[in-house]
Amino acid sequence: MPYFDHNSTTALADTAREVWLRVQAENWHNPSSPTRGAARARIWLDSYHEALAVLLGGEPAHYVFNSGATEGAYAVLGHWAARLPAKARIAVAATEHACVLAAAARFFPGLIDWLPHDAAGVVSVAAVRAALDAGAAGVVVMAANNETGVIQPWSEIAAISRAAGGGAGVPYLCDAAQWLGKIPGSGLGSCGAWVIASGHKFGAPKGVGFVKMPAADPDFSTQGGGLQEAGHRAGTEDVAGIAALAAALVECEQKHVVWESQRLGWRESFERELLAALPGTRIVAAGTERLWNTVFAVMPHTEHSRWIARLDKRDAQVSTGAACTTGKDGPSHVLAALGVAPGDARRALRISAGWGTTEADWAALLAALRDVGAELKGG
Ligand code: PLP
């Protein structure tokens, strides 16, 4: 069945499943207890911190495992709010994920300045520099957008944020939930940003992710009552889930070396054929650098729920946009920020492939879209 909703979540990767089962069977102990089994679990846990540092950069101790990007957004922005001067303002991209926007609104109510972006949603480095010059005390720009797949210049934003504040640096939060696993993550851990991510976006189980601190910050503590994760995040660690996250990331980092350009080619020819097959279709942010797996298309004829229901009958699974906001009233805030009219936004379909998606899956999806388009055109 062609599954094209990988930006929402992915199936467990084979290596992640194997590692998860093995750790559950052999290293299920609580790493904080004094037993011999626990000592072994602690060693394994340390090795996963090491693995992330090797893959992404930075110090192993600066990785704090948690339940994922939503928890990470609240932890990081809550931490900033506690540390920054009262009334400090932060500069935020309007196309951030809903969890980041919600955390920003909670911890910086009335203190958010929206960063300008181009028609595709890309925030320029100049816009961030202007915000910093105007006194922004924090910057929030994701690595890649979950709906459009648009890629942001996070590395350059990290560099200017690091140098801002007269060299003292201004904190930068980079939500890498959609970048990791799809594009090489090297440098994310050493760029000076606060990075958040969720393992289930790249083949790990749901409910495990991490925050990468830019540097040692003993005050970063999301919750109390235990000294897990060096006191940064109390609560018994999900060692098997963390092991699976590290294994899944290794697998993805190997995959894009070999396959990324081929997968991008498949997406590009799908887009060309879709536009030819269904006149009136529009690809959001076409012509802008995007994730190799993501197509956000405004469809002709009728609203997305009807497209999705009919595609589903043909075993083709796509979505309307972010899964977290499925069922909420109104069109996607990302499309609204891009100036897409509400009527058009209600016809948007998000199509997101995975590493396991084949060329034949893309062809099957195109055929299903063509059939459904013919049906819907006829009313
Ligand atoms: N950030 C982005 C860009 C996402 O796509 C998602 C999930 O859709 C999240 C954050 C939230 O991730 P989670 O639900 O795993 O906490």
Could you explain the architecture of this structure?
The structure is a single chain. The chain has 379 residues and is an alpha/beta fold. It folds into two domains: 14-250, Aspartate Aminotransferase, domain 2 (3-Layer(aba) Sandwich), CATH 3.40.640; 257-378, Alpha-Beta Complex (Aspartate Aminotransferase, domain 1), CATH 3.90.1150.10. Helix content is 41%, strand content 11%. It contains eleven helices and ten strands. The protein has helices spanning 14-26, 36-56, 69-83, 98-107, 125-133, 154-163, 239-277, 304-313, 333-337, 342-345, 359-377; strands at 63-66, 90-93, 112-115, 138-140, 172-175, 194-198, 209-212, 282-283, 294-298, 348-352. The strands form two sheets. The chain has a seven-stranded mixed β-sheet, sandwiched between helices. Strand 4 (138-140), helix 6 and strand 5 (172-175) form a beta-alpha-beta unit. The chain is globular, with a radius of gyration of 21 Å. The chain starts with 13 loop residues before the first helix and ends with a helix. The mean pLDDT is 94. Residues 68-70, 97, 99, 142, 146, 175, 177-178, 198, 200, 322-324 line the site of pyridoxal-5'-phosphate.
